[in-house]
Design a protein that fits this description.
Blueprint (H helix, E strand, L loop, with lengths): L1 E13 L8 H8 L6 E13 L11 H16 L2 E2 L14 H13 L7 E10 L2 E5 L2
Length: 133
């Protein structure tokens, strides 16, 4: 089994709030992240599959990068994650939720014999989330 990893970066803003809570409760739970702010995100996607004996590849890196660009980057770069991204409607845009949502969006587009292995979402040098099933 081989593992391939590809990375994208994007800039986006968000605000961590639960609409059912008042401002004070949101501040208690989300701290300063309850204010609108932005991040330069890094997303790494790892896929796994057998190496094709004819091509010598698991998956062409260009194909994987195209999927990441079309499915994730084009939807979130320079956007307000709370307001501008339909697949995040009513989803608090935490790094944890972004990883899960990105996973679900990508998995249906994986070629035959290729599976998602892991998604990493880094919103800062100090804050990183890993997701896999």
């Amino acid at each position: 089994m081989h593992y391939l990893k590809s990375k994208i970066t994007f800039a986006a803003s968000h605000q961590l709030v639960n609409q059912d809570w008042d401002t004070e409760k949101n501040r208690q739970v989300y701290g300063k992240c309850s204010n609108r702010h932005g991040h330069n995100y890094t997303v790494e996607v790892t896929v796994k599959g057998p190496c094709d004996p004819v091509t010598g590849m698991v998956l062409n890196f260009t194909q994987l990068k195209h999927l990441l660009k079309e499915i994730i980057y084009s939807q979130v770069d320079h956007k307000d994650l709370n307001q501008d991204v339909p697949f995040l409607t009513n989803v608090p845009p935490t790094a944890e939720n972004l990883a899960c949502v990105f996973w679900n969006l990508l998995k249906v587009h994986m070629p035959e014999n290729i599976a998602l292995h892991e998604i990493m979402v880094q919103e800062s040098e100090k804050n990183t989330v890993y997701y896999h099933e």
